[in-house]
Amino acid sequence: MKTTVATFLKMKQENQKISMLTCYDYTTAKIIDSSNVDAVLVGDSLGNVVLGYEDTLSVTMNDMITFSAAVARGCKQKLVVVDMPFMSYQVSVEKALENAGRLMKEGRANAVKLEGGRSVLAQVKAIVDAGIPVMGHLGMTPQSVNAFGGHKVQGKTLEAAQKLIDDALALQEAGVFSIVLECVPAKLAAVLSQKLSVPTIGIGAGAQCDGQVLVYKDMLGMYQDFSPKFVKHYANFATEMTDAFNQYDAEVKQGIFPALEHTFKIDEEVIEKLY
Ligand code: KIV
């Protein structure tokens, strides 16, 4: 049975942790689809880990649609949440609704995610009212990296913590089915997770969140430009890939690859006539 937004709510009610990974392509989507991970996020982190930008700001609607559609083709069992890119929802409610609709129609998303609290409440309400599930995202929201002056932990003062709580409650009231908490002190995330009836999905927000999300290229040790404190490496694929590439290079140069089993046959008679 495919995971849905209802699964998320049920898991929170039943005290079961939710696991999410980002995903950007068909091949990886099929692998995650066959795993026990509950849902995938086509994050605009693809700006960093796929397209090589220094932040997520340059990611376009067309980028998100292309990668989302690829992931959706490989994900038959998992909820596919897709990020609304920078400036695809901030400008107006109409624009936000139109772009959320494109991610559903062309990107085959099951839900969209957008960053921000009360500043984007009208957009969240309009998208939810159109029957599109919305995931919120609070804390260190990467599209606001310039406003924050860097990737800094958010909500550390009483005022900032209270603002986060008020934003989260407003998002819940507006109808989001869950909220990502990024780079928030663990104890504040615990308070938020208790106050909310919708699940919190943490990234750098501690173990008391209702679920966790990681960028899959981070957790597999593939992306090496920077490694945030909250990332755990479950594998070291960069080293394994480099070893495999070097072995391939050596075998090509030594004439070991391709071997007979990698080649196609032709009748000797045909070959003789060619000489
Ligand atoms: O874009 C992304 O991958 C995200 C996660 C970091 C939550 O938004």
Automatic annotation (TrEMBL):
Binds 1 Mg(2+) ion per subunit. The active site is at E182. InterPro entries: Pantoate_hydroxy_MeTrfase (IPR003700), Pyrv/PenolPyrv_kinase-like_dom (IPR015813), Pyrv_kinase-like_dom_sf (IPR040442). Keywords: Cytoplasm, Magnesium, Metal-binding, Pantothenate biosynthesis, Transferase. The keyword Glycosyltransferase does not apply. It comes from the Bacteria. Its cofactor is Mg(2+). Pathway: Cofactor biosynthesis; (R)-pantothenate biosynthesis; (R)-pantoate from 3-methyl-2-oxobutanoate: step 1/2. NCBIfam families: panB, PRK00311.1. Homodecamer; pentamer of dimers. HAMAP family: PanB (MF_00156). This is 3-methyl-2-oxobutanoate hydroxymethyltransferase.
